[in-house]
Amino acid sequence: MACNVINEGMKMAVFESKPDFDPGIFQRALKDVIKKVNGNLELFTDKFPASSTIGNVYEFNKHGNTRDANPENNEGINIGWTTGFWTGILNLIYEHTGDERYIKAIETQVNSFKDRIEKEIDCNTHDLGFLYSLSCVAAYRLTGNEAAKTAALAAAKHLMSRYVEVAGILQAWGDMNDPSERGRMIIDSLMNLPLLYWASEITGDSLYKNAADNHAQKALKYIVRDDGTTYHTYFFDTYTGDPKNGNTLQGHADDSCWARGQAWGIYGFVLSYLYTNDSRFLEISKVLANYFLNRSPEDLVVYWDLDFTDGSGEPKDSSSSAIAVCGLLELVKHLSEEGEKQYYTNAAMKIMKSLYDRYSTRNDEGSNALLLHGVYFRKYNHGVDEANLWGDYFYLEALTRLIKNWNPYW
Description:
Layout: H1 13-16, H2 25-41, H3 83-97, H4 100-118, H5 128-143, H6 146-159, E1 163-164, E2 169-170, E3 184-186, H7 193-203, H8 206-223, E4 233-236, E5 243-247, H9 259-276, H10 279-294, H11 318-331, H12 338-359, E6 374-377, E7 382-386, H13 389-403
Antiparallel strand pairs: 1-2, 3-4, 4-5, 6-7
């Protein structure tokens, strides 16, 4: 395995010491979140919010994964890759409150996801894991909703249509027959694999798990670079299965380290470990975490690409830090060495304290979001210095992990 020693001896001093604040602050943060989501519930029950805010306010969703996903320009439609994060937020709030209003909203949205997969609306993407793990798998686990189970299994079956067997990867997006698109895997896909692992557990069919494991193994070998950083994308020859080259779409440069991608890797590899018990996934998660933490700026919330730090003039991406915190908190559950566990726990708590103090909307009555100062797509100046649905979701998941013994939806 590449990177087996990278960053192992490097530790940020700020994370060596335990937090000097009352962890009760996270309970207060959760109360702020519940209040904010309560205010959004009526607006976003049978409609979905957009992927990111405009002026820190979510409008109705209109945009999908393809140009023709919403030809009638309907508002609040269940298309694109991010709608599941909103349903995931509702599932988490229901866990915390037991409020029956959330059950009704979740059932409404589960029906929407069931309709979406049955009609194959904007479904030709690896992001079916993001969409269906946090909506339908979560709803089934929480309430035994059979419609949710049916929809999630249909989504897993559809996701398998993107599996390129000769290369052992899930193609991220694009026409499977288009030579310019064929054979692209991306680091984000690690977070979509739990849908396949879950499908194998439910059906007893190992086909799903084998595909997920193969993809994770290829990501370990080719997405992760020798210095502990990650490519955003990597291409394979779909005729021979041979590796071709790595590059980026979202990052600063092909050889830079896109922050959100690194965070997906920290969390995604741990999730594959949960289902396979392959210790290499746990070890590589630590390597990626060490690099991520070592690029921490003064306020501990990273810039959108880890090439940048204080003084660069570039925007922060709070969502990357929220994702990383969730990955760290899952990681420590599987480590045996107390010093490591304490280090990563310290890091997670201190980053979360900064997110609450400087990036949350606790004092912003004008915003209907949870976590400000995120980045969607820097190169196209889309969703820059705005809130986004995944940032909100992972902020709430991180708070949940810090407050209770939580069983992941992934």
